[in-house]
């Protein structure tokens, strides 16, 4: 089948054998908790995908990573979502290397060598606060930081080796908080993992709750930018990576449903072609923003373009999954849980921050010439 050929070829180039492993297993198995796909993802080198090649990683470009996430999403939406959170954390470390003290390079090398999985405890937007404001708080103590906070949902809760997070560090003199990125070993004293996710959709992503209570993070795992008082450009660039990768992941899940219609020749020629037109146009938009990220120095422009592409993809997915499920027919819906599952799972893109409603005001102001302030 022509659709997805390029994406699956890219996946095979970087992570040989993963696509076959996923293709050989039923969707319901891959979407269940503890299904084993995260371990296979590690075995084929998935955690090192976006670590620079000179640090021992696979050095995938953002364009290739977008293609890979779509391919993975077409086989297992849960694995695509979980791995997106890991890649987002790695991307933030990569961006931090431009302004950090050098130890970030050692951590990226260790991630590649040990195939560690990183969960993301970065802020995901709370009412009345900046989308990138830290959700964790830290207090400086001898030897590091004491960190407190709750992250829910937190993908990779049970499989993570490290938790990455942005932290607001309290100034003992009463001044403004200092922003930091921390890496927290999963077995740290004071880190508690509990069940949180109740939906049957995307349970394989392990999106449960992580609670930090006076967790000591050693100084070696605390990273500050050079100026010590502002990290938004680093987080914003990482957030561009997140928006593109998560959009591609859900686009892949929608493509799986369309593939069924194409493979079984359901509907008319125009019905099937229309599905491809919608899907490939959305993918082209994601790829174009990914290419622009390699040269753009305007973080506001890049993040705005990423959000435009994400929301366009969201709308595309809504139309495609409805049209594809109708074309597949009632017996396909009745005969297995796959159609219903994909209808539910693909809708979850709308729940990743920032929501379309939350971003509309800031984007409208940006279009009128103001800075982008999500």
Automatic annotation (TrEMBL):
Which InterPro entries does the entry mention?
Acyl-CoA_Oxase/DH_mid-dom_sf (IPR046373), AcylCo_DH-like_C (IPR036250), AcylCoA_DH/ox_N_sf (IPR037069), AcylCoA_DH/oxidase_NM_dom_sf (IPR009100)
Q: Which UniProt keywords apply?
A: FAD, Flavoprotein, Oxidoreductase
Quote the SUPFAM superfamilies the UniProt record gives. Acyl-CoA dehydrogenase C-terminal domain-like, Acyl-CoA dehydrogenase NM domain-like
State whether keyword Endoplasmic reticulum applies.
Answer: no
Q: Does the keyword Transmembrane helix apply?
A: no
Record's protein name: Alkylation response protein AidB-like acyl-CoA dehydrogenase
Q: What is the organism field in this record?
A: Nocardioides marmoribigeumensis
